[in-house]
Specification:
Layout lengths: L1 E9 L5 E10 L4 E5 L6 H8 L7 E6 L2 E2 L5 H7 L3 E4 L11 H7 L8 H14 L15 H13 L5 E5 L7 H12 L7 E5 L3 H4 L5 E7 L2 E6 L3 E2 L5
Parallel strand pairs: 3-8, 3-9, 6-7, 7-8
Antiparallel strand pairs: 1-2, 1-4, 2-11, 4-5, 9-10
Helix pairs in contact: 3-4, 3-5, 4-5
The structure holds adenosine-5'-triphosphate (ATP) and magnesium ion.
């Protein structure tokens, strides 16, 4: 599903955010990316979404090569990816339900169906009571649930959640993580970045990857990361 070979990412200002990443992630995997602030977690997710391109190396995501030249095809690839951003990126002035529906507007789904699918997604995240509430009036955790509903409504093959438990207390953080695990199946991989290493230690079948100064190091699990290269 994801194959990276010698991938590095240097931003325009010269910052080397990822260094020679070689790894593979298969469908059905649950992957945690941990590591200190500024280590490169969000940068890695940006590459997977084609929001940035590798400076060196080869990256394919669901069979799609991530390069500048492939920008049109990458737009199509994004239909198969459900991103949950660190800062949510919900649209103020719109309700929870509207936000979930807007996440599906580029898919070829008839509008009646879109509403039904969005309502099901809202139910899946247990937010039925807030579906007609403007998103600016939601709590942090509720906003997070809308962002998750928006990401999963279109049944993406790859779910990317950036720091989804950020501000939550222990119980709510566990609930959000369990909700995200529930979307892993044989066709779907879920990648979650988190600072909360204490929350993920006992998750069975999960792959844990530590990001440190742009390098990826596997701590446990099934994904393959080649650490021998430098
Ligand atoms: N657009 C950008 N231009 C230049 N440098 C950037 C850009 N985005 C991120 N960086 C830098 O790249 C490095 C990795 O940042 P990144 O956001 O990937 O870290 P992170 O692991 O997600 O951190 P956090 O846990 O705080 O979210 C940092 O040094 C950051 O300052
Ligand atoms: Mg980040």
């Amino acid at each position: 599903m994801i194959s990276a070979k010698g991938v590095s990412l240097r931003y325009k200002d010269g910052t080397l955010a990822l260094k020679d990443v070689t790894m593979e992630i298969k469908p059905g995997e649950l992957v945690f990316l941990t590591g200190p602030s500024g280590s490169g977690k969000t940068s890695f997710l940006k590459l997977l979404m084609g929001m940035e391109y590798p400076t060196t190396g080869t990256l394919t995501v669901i069979g799609q090569l991530i390069t500048k030249e492939e920008v049109k095809n990458i737009r199509k690839l994004r239909k198969s990816i459900g991103p949950i951003y660190q800062e949510f990126k919900l649209i103020d002035g719109r309700t929870s339900l509207d936000n979930v529906m807007m996440g599906m507007r580029f898919l070829d789904i008839p509008s009646k169906k879109i509403k039904k699918i969005a309502e099901e997604a809202i139910e899946r995240v247990h937010l039925e009571q807030k579906k007609n509430t403007l998103v600016e009036n939601l709590s942090w955790g509720q906003s997070q649930r809308v962002a998750i509903a928006r990401a999963v409504a279109r049944k993406p093959a790859l779910i990317l959640a950036d720091e989804p438990t950020g501000n939550l207390d222990y119980e709510n953080a566990i609930n959000i993580l369990q909700l995200l695990y529930s979307f892993v199946d044989s066709n779907t991989a879920v990648i979650i970045t988190t600072h909360a290493t204490h929350l993920i230690q006992n998750v069975p079948h999960a792959t844990c990857i530590e990001v440190e100064e742009g390098k990826l190091r596997i701590i446990k699990g099934e994904a393959r990361v080649d650490e021998t290269r430098t």
